[in-house]
Amino acid sequence: MHATDAVTQGRESYARRAWRDAYEQLSAADGPTPLDADDLDRLAKAAYFIGHDDAAVEGFERAHRAFLDRADIGRAARSAFWLGYFLVQRGRHAEAGGWFGRAQRLLDEHALDAVECGYLLIPAARRALDSGDPHRAHEMFDEAVRIAHRFGDADLIALGTMGRGRALISGGDVRRGMAMLDEAMLAVTTGDVSPMAAGLVYCVLVISCRDIFDWRRAQEWTVALTRWCANQQDLKPYRGQCLVHRSEIMQLRGEWPDAMAEAQQACEHLADPPGDPVLGMAHYQLAELLRLRGEFSGSERAYRKAGEAGHAVQPGLALLRLAQGRIDEAEAAIRRVVAEAEDDRVKRCRVLAAFVEIVLAAGDIDAARTASDELAEFAADLDTPYLRAVAASARGAIMLADGDDHAACVALRRAWLSWQELDAPYEAAQVRLLMSRACRRLGDHDTASMELDAARRVFEQLGAGPALTKAAELSGRSRASAPGGLTAREVDVLRLVATGASNREVADRLVLSEKTVARHLSNIFAKLGVASRAAATAYAYRHQLV
């Protein structure tokens, strides 16, 4: 193809947002005669949109120099701004600061009254926000919006509005702040904003929603943005931390395969270059998904990678220990974490639900009740559906453990309705397991059976192995097929022991510790009234457990 034709086609593809075609066509035209500044800008952005990060960096640098060569100072500063923001997303903050500084110097030296002056207020306002001065940050974001309106720049309007919202939330005005973020996101989904700004606005919105536990809002905008992305060829507007939070949203919605793919992509994206602190967050999210699926060995490796990268591994690791039957270790870890979070209410809230589950398993109902009351207080203050559902679930579980089955049914029904409204199938199914237990103890076996079957179907669809094991135990199937009152896990251990497997081999097969296998064997010997592996093996064959 002739270079001129390739440029023309590249421009046309760019205009209709066929990003991969635009990138390939403009790259093909970028031969002995380099592209002009505007086409280099298009090439850099197309590379960014389809995830060709190194090509994007090179393209923005070349566009910056080309704009300088033709004395277009404003556009040169704009290229430097986008390059700086891109490098921030990659964790290369020193380089980003250099590009922001160069852009500001160019504007100052030429005393330029241009929209780029507003763009350069964005990183400065963000620094003020990060340093704990939301009032100063709000003033700078506000000035950026005024400049944007004067020049009619939709991208800068969205970025400035986004920043104002974030500053208001940091200053304690959550309602007005979230309304600002909604306004910025609306500009994205109605097509008023370019993909360059869209990814930044969405990422800030999701982080803000996560900070105040407003997962419903995050879910709604995620669905809307997914529709917006669907009409743009190979668009990848998400980077770094944003990928992790999208995975969390997908997990809550029961889209576990997509959540896993997003978390794995985040791990790969953040590993190069090394040293990005968000990498630990990505590994932690991957570990959470593997834990829920019952892939305990992989989950433990991912938690360890998260810890090596500097990210906290709790409460996830404590919940993994609970799932492995290592209750003492889980309890010790979660009590330490809750105590250390005494002065950080948001961090404390993130671990209280796990605390309730673990200390209930350890038999400390009083400690669970205190934590549940604290959760309920926090939920009332923030008034978000997610926290209300968490608090109601904890309250119902405590009532059930305390033997108040009627009250437990009422609280758990409220919790189930809340999870249903959030479209959170796993959490809703977990509540139905508890409801099944309560109804069975009340003698309402029909309802107990229906709740159990509904929960089991969800767990099967999700591939939630540990939850399926709980459902099987609750259904009585494990007891029916296992004489001697053995649990499903004890049957698994006995079957392997009967084949001649050592404790180490059993541990590897079932992803348990050798200590846990030894404890299971001790329980098996006691329940069956035997004193040796040989006698237990004979029992297993005699009762057709092998």
Automatic annotation (TrEMBL):
Keywords: DNA-binding, Transcription, Transcription regulation
Cited Pfam families: GerE
Species of provenance: Haloechinothrix alba
Protein name according to UniProt: Transcriptional regulator, LuxR family
Keyword Cell division assigned: no
SMART domains in the record: HTH_LUXR (SM00421)
GO molecular function: DNA binding
Domain of life: Bacteria
Start and end residues of each HTH luxR-type domain: 479-544
One of the protein's GO biological processes: regulation of DNA-templated transcription
Gene3D superfamilies named among the record's database cross-references: Tetratricopeptide repeat domain, Winged helix-like DNA-binding domain superfamily/Winged helix DNA-binding domain
Kinase is among the record's keywords: no
PANTHER family in alphabetical order: TRANSCRIPTIONAL REGULATORY PROTEIN NARL-RELATED, TWO-COMPONENT RESPONSE REGULATOR
